[in-house]
Amino acid sequence: AEVHGLDRGVHGDVTFARTVYERGGLTEAEWRTYCAFMDWTLAGVPDPDLVVYLESSVEELQRNIALRDRPQERSLPDGYLAHLKRNYARWLEAMSRRCKVVRVPWGDYGGGLHRSGGVEYVAQVINECRSALGDDLLALQPHGKPTVKSREVVQ
Predict the structure, then answer these.
(1) Angle between helices 10-22 and 80-96 (to 10 degrees)
(2) Residue 137's closest CA among 83, 99, 110, 97?
(3) Fewest CB atoms within 10 A around its CB: which of 53, 108, 109, 155?
(4) What is the pTM of this model?
């Protein structure tokens, strides 16, 4: 089977919903309905072999959000990103008991490839992922693009 990478896979979606709920954006009934739906959805989804978490500080996140300048992100409430990071920390702790987790300090690269040394840094991250899985799951192509072999990897 081929390996598939996902950006914010279904396993992590609950983190966003929990943050919205805890900040008053969902009622108790809405949260229970969401949880029941996610329990049903995740029942047939295997755990990932690997989670790659790109770590950034709240300040770095705010800077990247400002650079993107997406209308829906312009009015994030104070404290939302810090709350989200706390919930992600709890989620990663739980996931680390179910699969391998690689935490990548990403803030210095703001997304990686456009900065000096970005390609080399991404190659290093791929090698860390390979080491975490203990096999030749990920390999670099000559142009620095990752290719995937044999198992599913979900972020």
Answers:
(1) 140
(2) 99
(3) 108
(4) 0.71
